[in-house]
Amino acid sequence: MGLPVSNTPPGTKKGLDERPSLLLLPFPPSPSTRTLLSAAYRPSLAATLAKLADAGGAESLVIAVACPILHGQYLRSKSISWSEAQALLAGLYTLVSVVCAELKLAVEVDGGPGSVDVTIVLVDHDRERRFLSGSQPGIKTNSTTVVDLATFAAAYHPWRSIFHVRSEPGLELFNTYLKLAEGRQTLLQNQLVPVEGGLAMNASQEAPATDTPPTAGYPVVCLGGTFDYLHPGHKLLLTAAALLLRVPDVGSPQPCQFIIGITGDELLKNKKYAEYVQPWAVRARNVIIFLSRLLRASEKGWKDSSPPDIQEEDGDFRASFRESTISVQCVRIQDAFGPTITVENMDALVVSGETRSGGRAVNERRAEKGWRLLEVFEVDVLDAGEISDQAGAVGNFASKISSTTIRQQRAQKSVKR
């Protein structure tokens, strides 16, 4: 049983190569330090990314990491330990960036030939979970933005290739996924690609024990940034913020809101290589398209290759997901505060280490207005020091996650042309 598999040579159907590929990664090591993540996942990531690099085009890869990430017995009362989840994402995006640097693969969105656009998705799953034989899973979302393996199989497809780890937990996950995804896509045999696994660790098979209580989630979450040439640092920030959303039931009068302030073009005129800064509309559109990979849940998957339905007005782009239970809004900001001091009804603010002081300043201004303060959550930084044994790779890694350096590289290429 599983997905229909054909030995027929690949066809030339238009759009096939534009589909993303999938890498299924089994349970992360416990504890999920960056050193252990590298030992467990680096061989699989390196093999997968090397194969994509050989294709020579602009590649897209979704990395699904199966782990018992959610707490709670009932579907509508799920919660997540946010600090542990974002730390796992930070370690994974760091590892991806290091491997891409070593392979000389660009990691920004719209990177052109020789680039890979990676999206990391945490999928709630444990090895003890059983699914009814022969049942066709449907879309069953919960009160978080994380989905379980059955819903992932039903909503995320079709794939250009599916990479899976050649290990006992990797093969077990792969076989379970195939059963759940049966009938969604007919795959050619050469689209199913086994890759080597890393060192076997004490895999997390139960919800992680933590001294940090699960995060209940918030109706309105916000953050800000430039999001120029969307790269792994941006993706980490956006994904971590989305994990804080408390998603209401379908039919609720008020969706949860994810408000993203994106710096206006006027404020970026003095940036280095400012002539290569992407226009605000491009940056906003790329943010929503990236989030659609995390938030969209439809049994059609992306069969029709249609982009998310974005309502575009000057300086205000909006999209809805999961039957209008999640609202994403990108607004143009002309100062360091944006909507945090013009919209009272907000709950949580997500910052990076670089913008920590901005979070304090926001709450000071809200206090002056007599408004309630925002809960501030800080996302870990991407740091290759713990996992790279090549000094040059660390330097290249830093370049690949800097919008300024990406603009510099584009300026240099333009001069050469």
Describe the structure.
With 417 residues, the protein is an alpha/beta fold. 31% of the residues lie in helices and 20% in strands. It contains nine helices and 17 strands. The strands form four sheets. It has a seven-stranded mixed sheet, with helices on both faces. Strand 4 (70-71) and strand 5 (79-80) form a beta hairpin. The longest helix is centred in the N-terminal third of the chain and has 22 residues, at 34-55.
Labels describing this entry:
globular; 31% helix; 6-stranded parallel β-sheet; 20% strand; single chain; Rossmann fold; 417 residues; 7-stranded mixed β-sheet; alpha/beta; 9 helices
Layout of helices and strands:
Elements: E1 5-6, E2 21-25, H1 34-55, E3 58-67, E4 70-71, E5 79-80, H2 82-102, E6 115-124, E7 147-148, H3 149-155, E8 162-166, H4 168-180, E9 187-188, E10 192-196, E11 220-225, H5 232-242, E12 256-263, H6 280-295, E13 311-313, E14 316-321, E15 326-333, E16 348-351, H7 356-369, E17 375-378, H8 391-400, H9 403-416
Parallel strand pairs: 1-9, 2-3, 2-8, 3-6, 6-7, 8-10, 11-12, 11-16, 12-15, 16-17
Antiparallel strand pairs: 4-5, 13-14, 14-15
Helix pairs in contact: 1-2, 2-5, 2-8, 5-6
